[in-house]
Write a structure and sequence with these properties.
Number of helices: 13
Distance between the termini: 34 Å
Radius of gyration: 26 Å
Bound molecules: zinc ion
Number of strands: 20
CATH class of the largest domain: Alpha Beta
Helix content: 25-40%
Structural class: alpha/beta
Largest sheet: 10 strands, mixed
CATH topology of the largest domain: Aminopeptidase
Shape: elongated
CATH architecture of the largest domain: 3-Layer(aba) Sandwich
Amino acid sequence: MKKILLAVTLGFLACNSSQKSVTENSKTEKETVSPIVYANTITETELKEHLYTYASDEFEGRNTGSKGQKLAVEYLKNEYESLNIQPAQEDGDYFQDVPLEISKVPTGTIVLNGKEYKIGTDFITFSSMETSLDKIVYANFGIETDGYSDYSTIDVTNKVVLINFGEPKNTDGTYVISGTALPSKWGNFNESLSDRLKIAYDKGAKGILLIKNNNYSRLLSRFEYIANSSREILKLATNSSADLPMIMVNQNLGNQFKKIVGSATSSKEIEVDLDLNIKSGNKKINSENVVAFLKGNELPEEYVVISSHLDHIGISNDGQINNGADDDGSGTVALLEIAEAFKKAADEGNGPKRSIVFLHVTGEEKGLLGSKYYTDFEPIFPLEKTVANLNIDMIGRIDPNREGDRNYIYLIGSDKLSTELHELSEEVNSKYAQLELDYTYNDENDPNRFYYRSDHYNFAKNNIPIIFYFNGTHEDYHRPGDTPDKINYDLLQNRTRLVFHTAWEVANRANKIVVDKPVIN
Ligand SMILES: [Zn+2]
């Protein structure tokens, strides 16, 4: 280790003299204070005590929106109140409401010029729309990009827009947008759908009718799978372009619309006799993130977010409870202990320079919903002032397929956006924790794609450096056997202390962590 370290330090000094190593940094500002005394308040006993409650049968596997999940957030709120750590929101509420809905396929029909068309057969949609229209706007391909727009001559405010899926071609057969014989991204359904929705949404449209000639059957089978599956599909109930009602009509119904449009090759308003009678099957679900906060004493408007998810998968169809002790009970209790350690430091006048946000998110098992709501819709603190996110998801067990020292942790994403964060993490570990840091799953091409599968991803995609702490899966992953008695509390303690030390260094370092490999330019 020494050899590499020397090389690294020199290189480091060469490229960025302002960034000092762990020891130099803390020596100058916090001479007398070592984080070790606070790290040692994080103990196996306390972690176990919390976990035997939080992952007990009483919490019924903490399914998002369920009674058990409500018990979980009350538990967290009571803990922060007893630690006297303030809520993050100005209104004094620890709970950040996360609007969710169970998306079920709607029911209903479309009546065009007196003829009825059925959902599933002639069109598919996941949105509801109940309205009668005598005018809609035909917007050709619904594209707006550099040098080309199907919206330049029309106003679609509060209108339903009819779009033909595809892209414009020149008389010589080349594509207008690419200028070549090769189609642009607008010719690819998956690549361009959200852009088409966003353009129409930003222009004030109230819905889209999309004529989809090819691949309709593939989308239909997905629609039927959801319609027939008992699996609950939860999504954020936020008003964003992704929620713009979109109805995809098949070739038959599409041809009826095309008859009305005629030979038009540009956008225009068209007269129709159209009833959309599509009723939503969606059911609203209330859930919440729990967010606590410790204000920094020198750089209070810079934030370090430490996160874990409070939910799990609930009760299986056979009635067995999935306790989720490791997933993510371990991350949840780790976060409570880290908060307690920082609070103790602050009470003794050794609080962090930067502010620390203790973020317990809901809906992770349903698609990273709570963290997505925080980053994409309601960040309590500005993302551009968020220095780093340390995300903990499953740190209480051992990966049975892993060889090597049991005192390990998988690190994912530490070097993705910031070389400095990666080196800081390494230095902190060698100084304070001496765990085996394993980067097996950090590989870009790792088929497990763990980098995209937990809440840090919503921060990373917003250019915030992240570290994901993870012990790998095991035989009880997402099963009733994931219980508190199977947790390795000594490892849970060591891994939690590593996260604490890393947060301490990020929060107290003179400079804000540098993002030298941004994802968004
Ligand atoms: Zn998890």
